[in-house]
Design goal:
- This protein is of the alpha/beta class and 288 residues long.
- The chain has 7 helices and 14 strands.
Length: 288
């Protein structure tokens, strides 16, 4: 069973190593920033293409390829029909949510931001539309109270190889079961950038806490501004410090031993700033 793998990042690297160890991997598509994937392919003499294959950039290579199964894990680019058609049996994507909820990019981060108690992994048949194909396997993953975007990715790293292997075994035995998604229940979330981490102190404390933990290090981090400096916040918790409701949100209520900030429905205590932030906060000042 010949396999072509589309993969990016650390999660893609994990699956690349697993598939290459146990299956007949014939080609890899990745992005130029996934240096470890590129290095692994070079070391193990696996043919690959690094970059966006659209706009004819990989047409000559694609014309020479074929496979039984096309797999996609954490791949950065939208996959077009010319690549999907390389698979004689199935093109299968492994998506980090419980589809049809949270279609799109960084779904586990959005799930934490929205206060979800669970996320998951959905293996689904690929179409020319985003994350809308029939589901062939789905596993729930609990989101704990202290989980961050990074810790959920660690959980995914342990579970993904097992699910990929199970799906490939189902294909091999011709036992793949397909369940169509209910498109009326689908939700979509866009790609996030570091600039999207700006904290709004007018939000409720629950949303601010989820916002912070979803994007905590090693992700770029949630942030605010103080004295024209960008301040990264990696961890916070609720606090019982008193305040006046007429005071502006973002007001610094205390600084010793922790910075405590007033928000719309309570107070939050900042437990961990970004390592680059060495700031002398002053009580009575406002975080922007």
């Amino acid at each position: 069973m010949k396999i072509i793998l589309l993969c990016s990042g650390g999660l893609g690297q994990t699956i690349l190593e697993a598939v290459n160890t146990t299956r007949d991997l014939v080609f890899v598509f990745t992005d130029k920033k996934s240096k470890e994937i590129i290095a692994y392919c070079e070391k193990n003499q696996i043919d690959f293409f690094a970059g966006n294959p659209r706009l004819g950039k990989a047409d000559e290579i694609i014309a020479q390829l074929n496979c039984d199964v096309l797999l996609s894990v954490n791949y950065l680019f939208v996959v077009k029909e010319n690549i999907l058609n390389l698979a004689s049996k199935y093109a299968i994507n492994f998506h980090g949510s419980l589809l049809p909820k949270y279609r799109g990019r960084t779904p586990h981060v959005w799930a934490i931001i929205n206060g979800e108690k669970k996320t998951g992994i959905s293996a689904h048949l690929m179409t020319t539309e985003v994350d809308d194909g029939a589901i062939v396997k789905q596993v729930e993953v609990k989101i704990g109270h202290e989980d961050t975007g990074s810790s959920i990715l660690e959980k995914f790293g342990l579970i993904f190889p097992k699910i990929v292997d199970e799906v490939l075994e189902d294909v091999k035995l011709d036992q793949l079961k397909k369940t169509n998604q209910n498109h009326l229940e689908a939700t979509y979330y866009q790609k996030r950038t570091p600039e999207d981490g700006h904290i709004n102190w007018n939000w409720h404390k629950e949303r601010i806490r989820n916002w912070v933990r979803a994007q905590a290090a090693p992700y770029p981090g949630a942030f605010c501004f103080y004295e024209n400096k960008k301040i990264i916040i990696n961890k916070m918790e609720f606090d019982e410090h008193g305040f006046t409701n007429e005071s502006p949100n973002g007001l610094i209520l205390a600084t010793n031993p922790f910075v405590i900030v007033k928000v719309s429905n309570g107070a939050i205590k900042i437990l961990e700033f970004g390592s680059e932030n060495v700031v002398n906060f002053k009580k009575g000042d406002i975080l922007k």
